[in-house]
Each structure stands twice: as C-alpha cells, then as structure tokens.
Amino acid sequence: MKKLLLTLAACCAISCAVQAKTLIVYYSYTNNVERIVTALSSQIEADVIEVEPAEKGLDYAANNYAIGSSQIAAIRNNPNDKSSYPAIDPVDVNMDDYDTVIIGAPLWWSQMAAPLQTFLFEYGKEMAGKNICLIVSSASSGISSVEADARRLIPDGKFVTPSLWIKSSQTSSASSMISDWLKKIGYNDFASDMSVIFTGSDDALNIYTLSGLALTDLVSSVDELKRGIYIINGKKIAIQQ
Prior knowledge:
alpha/beta, Rossmann fold, 2 domains, seven-stranded mixed beta sheet, six-stranded antiparallel beta sheet, 26% helix
C-alpha cells in the first residue's frame, strides 16, 4: 500500500470527529444481570452481546450450584487451557469496532461466571488498549475476585475504576446506581465523540480511504480533501471540512 505523509499548510484546518463505540457483553442466569444491562442500555448508546452456554437446559442452581462450582474449579485449576472453559454459542463480533467494553458479570463462588470467562478467554487479547468497565451482580460476596478474573483474561485492557457492584437485593435500584456510576467514572469523557482540529505546518498524518488507497491516489492537495470516512494513523475518522 502506498503511504502518504500529508503535511498541512498553516492556512488549512481539518475537523475530525472520531466515533467512540461501546460494547456491552454479559451473561445472566437468574436474569439479574439482564435487568441491569437493560437499565444500562437505556442510558448509553451501545451494542449488546449476550453470552449463552452451548449446552442448553442445565440447571445451574441444582445441588447448591454444583455445575457452576465444578466449572469454576476447572478454570481455577488450569486457567490457560481452553478445554477448562465451558463451551458457549458462537459470537459474531469485531472488537476493532469498539473503544470501550462494559462487562456485566454474575458472581459464582466468588469468581466471574464461567460462561462469561469463556468469552473473555476467547476475546480478551483483542481488547488490548480498550477501556474496560465492569458491573458485577452478586447476592452478598465481594467482587474483588471477579475483578481479578477480568484482569487475568484481559491482560492489556485499560480498566476503568471503580467497578460497579449491584447486589441482588439492589437490582430494582439499578438505574439510579448506574447513572451515578457513569458520572463517577467519567464515562462521557472517554466514550463520547471526540473532535480534533489539525492545523499548522508541523502536523503530519498518514491518511487512507476505507478501501486502502492513500490520499495521493485521489487528490493533489489538502484543499481537495472531501467530507467522508478515512483511516488516519490507524483510526477510522469522519472528515468534515
């Protein structure tokens, strides 16, 4: 691919609006996390993925959650082995499309629910450099082990603190708790559209179209740059002149 180093003249200014996208991924057995995610989705714009176990009809609550306990133990004993994680339904997602990932996690035996750990085992490395936010639902136990699971499975994520802990008894108040939490973590500061103005002769950008063409294949000067979507230094950006 032919590269272009575009130096902007002092008289030129380009406004770039970067669309920051959010993904919510969750697993819910008792529907508490689903209710929380519904409340969250009403307050922010985001794509939503529900993780579902491949094996249907399992009664995780039977025998004091024996199945879930066994799955958690298998992961704990060999966390780097894919076979330790329960199979989940295939998920169609391109992590490159997102800047922020919010994880909705139930707590099982002090750990993150096993099916959600499977998803993060498969996609965690693709979340490197992204903002990672965590919402945890539990009956009473603390959430530090769930946070540790998330950091293990997403080793290079940019974790946003604090996580939000919503106890089962607080699910009906989830909407107000989420609103307060979004303000506390400054969600709008890192997840809203970002506008950047490039001006002056010292600014240099590598610019391509979405089809991979360097801008020199299309125009002879910055003044001819058209409104549209471009790749600038590896980021998808909307140019408005």
